[in-house]
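Technical annex, item 7. During the second reporting period the consortium partners agreed on a shared format for inverse folding records so that results from different sites could be compared directly. Each record opens with the tokenized structure and is followed by the designed sequence. A conforming record, contributed by the partner at site C, is shown below for reference.
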């Protein structure tokens, strides 16, 4: 329990469990859990044929020497009164920054492809950058493969039915789901998209601190560390 105040202590605000509980109670705040919304039937990603799957280049090595050496990708979903909204995200393992994202009412290859193209446009990665995902057919599509070949990005996939091979992305999706997309049912897909965009770009990337980054945000970590200063692991 005492560890819950570690993040505040790292920022110069030491706090114990009782103090945090009192502050939350006085302000009417409530914590979030990872219970989440029920999984939509269409959220099950069909596996790509084994012969077409890319090799596992990561092999559970969730670390990097610098930015844009390896990206991890996955898809989650938000519940709205208009139906499900799917979010595809791409994370840079070095700083845990979400470098690409896309949202759609349908979980298609275009959804994954759009998230990758956003990441490429924003980061312009080197040709050696690995793009790691699970075996979902969205990530084994010809469309996504063509985008990777055009940019020199190297595809990588984990083993079938092995979530540990993409544990870094599972670790990322957990807080996104608990703090934003599964926190409630949104009125419309448009409203959900706006709030998810705000969470990712204004809070997660800029402000949300991570113990694996020395209690810095992804943006703060990138500002504080120059490439090539040593291998920086990420806790999955």
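Designed sequence (site C submission):
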């Amino acid at each position: 329990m005492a560890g819950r105040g570690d993040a505040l202590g790292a920022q110069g605000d030491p706090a114990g469990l009782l103090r945090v509980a009192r502050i939350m109670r006085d302000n009417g705040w409530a914590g979030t859990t990872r219970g989440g919304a029920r999984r939509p039937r269409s959220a099950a990603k069909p596996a790509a044929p084994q012969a077409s799957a890319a090799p596992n280049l990561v092999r559970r090595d969730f670390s990097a020497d610098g930015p844009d050496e390896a990206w991890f990708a996955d898809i989650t979903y938000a519940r709205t009164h208009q139906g499900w909204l799917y979010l595809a995200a791409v994370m840079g393992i070095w700083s845990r920054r979400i470098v690409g994202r896309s949202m759609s009412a349908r979980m298609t290859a275009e959804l994954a492809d759009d998230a990758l193209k956003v990441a490429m446009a924003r980061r312009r990665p080197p040709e050696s950058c690995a793009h790691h995902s699970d075996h979902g057919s969205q990530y084994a599509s010809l469309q996504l493969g063509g985008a990777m070949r055009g940019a020199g990005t190297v595809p990588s996939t984990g083993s079938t039915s092995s979530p540990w091979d993409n544990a870094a992305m599972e670790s990322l999706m957990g807080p996104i789901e608990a703090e934003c997309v599964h926190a409630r049912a949104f009125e419309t897909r448009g409203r959900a998209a706006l709030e998810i965009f705000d969470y990712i770009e204004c809070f997660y990337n800029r402000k949300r601190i991570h113990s694996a980054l020395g209690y810095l945000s992804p943006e703060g970590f990138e500002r504080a560390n120059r490439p090539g200063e040593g291998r920086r692991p990420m806790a999955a």
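The first helix runs from residue 6 to 10. The mean pLDDT is 82. All partners now use this format for quarterly exchanges.
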